[in-house]
Write a structure and sequence with these properties.
This protein has 155 residues and is mostly helical. 71% of the residues lie in helices and 0% in strands. It is built from four helices and no strands. It is rod-shaped, with a radius of gyration of 29 Å.
Length: 155
């Protein structure tokens, strides 16, 4: 049963973080890709815009059309793949942050949190160990000290 609990679920843990990261990354990549496309199309566009000789226009127009035919499907496939990868990648960050927040909420509410364990490929593994130590420390009785609010009061 422990293995089933630890299984990676393909759902969005923190929609705002994960989709925001994916969109920002795609915007940056789109700008870089647009610059690359401009460089790829620039020689053909320059010849088409500045030349009136039909013998020079034909190869430039042909190259321009071939670039359109090949670059746009590749761009769409690349952006789709990158978007899906970022969602998958951000799951390794958003999942542990979600779990850390749940554990901290349990500690604040004076409840014993469940076992602090992240999936094997998640980030923040050292943080999980620190939270486990903190949870154990807070659940241990404090070496003979009375609980807060009881015992001696200083005047």
């Amino acid at each position: 049963m422990g293995a089933a609990e630890n299984r990676r679920r393909m759902r969005i843990v923190d929609r705002r973080f994960q989709l925001g990261l994916a969109v920002r990354l795609l915007l940056v990549l789109a700008a870089l890709f647009a610059a690359g496309i401009a460089v790829a199309f620039a020689p053909s566009v320059y010849i088409l815009a500045t030349t009136n000789d039909l013998k020079s226009l034909e190869p430039a127009a042909s190259e321009f059309l071939v670039l359109h035919k090949r670059l746009w499907p590749a761009a769409l496939l690349s952006f789709s793949g990158i978007f899906l990868y970022v969602i998958f990648f951000s799951h390794r960050i958003a999942g542990p942050v979600y779990r850390i927040n749940a554990i901290l909420r349990a500690l604040i509410d004076d409840r014993d949190p469940s076992v602090v364990k992240f999936r094997g490929d998640d980030y923040f593994q050292p943080t999980a160990q620190l939270l486990e130590e903190l949870s154990r420390k807070l659940s241990e009785p404090r070496g003979g000290k009375p609980p807060s609010g009881e015992g001696e009061r200083k005047s």
